[in-house]
Amino acid sequence: MLFLCLSILLSVVLLLNFRLFPRYQVNTFQAIVFNYPVCFLTGFLLLPRNQPFDIDFSQTWTWLALGLGVGFIITFILSGISTQRMGITATSLANNMSLVVPVCFSLFVFQAGGKTFNALNYMGLVLAVVAVGLSTFRKEEGQTVRALGWNTLLPVGVFLMYGATNTMINYMNIHYISSDDKTLQVTLTMVLGAIAAGLAMLAFRAIQGKEELKRQNLVGAITLGVPNFLSFYTLILALSQFGGNGAFVYPLYNIGVILVAALSATVFFKEKLLVVNQIGLALAVLAIGLISWQELAQWITR
């Protein structure tokens, strides 16, 4: 349970970083780009001494992992922008509710996991989508509650991108990753893909004169990169503690991040939740519970 709690806290730290970047004049894009070399260094230091890191381009999973790395940086950039424009709670909710996408693919396409959905599970999927929609509403001063134009698409983009990348990870686990000792290798390969894509984007913007390197951006990359990698690593350790029961760990993880993120936004940033946001938050917790109620019930009765 310790590793699960650490993963939840570290994931919320990522969102807090994005919210604090404007206050300290940290360029979000540069911090995201440079956070991935920090991620790689963090993961490389965690490699066992008898397990060297290498890349085999003859393997299909290598190219998929590199492609996923590109998807990660796009998702991360969307998450950073969404956090700043739509708030921590809406972005966190969209991120965590994206589990609906890999669940649907696992159920209807991959047909993996050996679980048969019933009416309560399907109700949970529907409520999850409704919860994301309710979380994107904000009330402007002196005006009624309404969606803030194109900005409301940011949490939707976060939802879809996180869902797509998690679905591809699930696909790789089913078809290409044969043993647990490949987990760190695959993760570092994904990070390399993100590094390549990020540096290419940064170089292009620098040539256009749109980027200027500053020290605070590198500091921001460190505060982002270390918890970014460790949040994923501690989640893997949590899965090992519970015998790889992702159906139990992931709902608890998502519920934890949603609630801790909302509490942190309220306490540290005075981010007010409208009634519709509160309803969305409640529906999110209910949706996750409905999606995985069988596994939760089994663990409670043990």
What does this 3D model show about the protein?
This protein is mainly α and 302 residues long. It contains twelve helices and two strands. The protein has helices spanning 2-20, 28-46, 60-86, 88-97, 100-110, 119-135, 153-175, 183-207, 215-241, 246-269, 275-291, 293-300; strands at residues 137-139, 145-147. Strands 1-2 form a two-stranded antiparallel sheet. The chain is globular, with a radius of gyration of 19 Å.
Please give a quick description of this structure.
About 75% of the residues lie in helices and about 0% in strands.
Low-confidence stretches: 140-146
Q: Structural class of the helix and strand makeup?
A: mainly alpha
Helix content: over 70%
* Total helical segments: 12
Set out the fold topology.
Elements (H helix, E strand, L loop, with lengths): L1 H19 L7 H19 L13 H27 L1 H10 L2 H11 L8 H17 L1 E3 L5 E3 L5 H23 L7 H25 L7 H27 L4 H24 L5 H17 L1 H8 L2
List keywords for this structure.
two-stranded antiparallel sheet, mainly alpha, 12 helices, 302 residues, globular
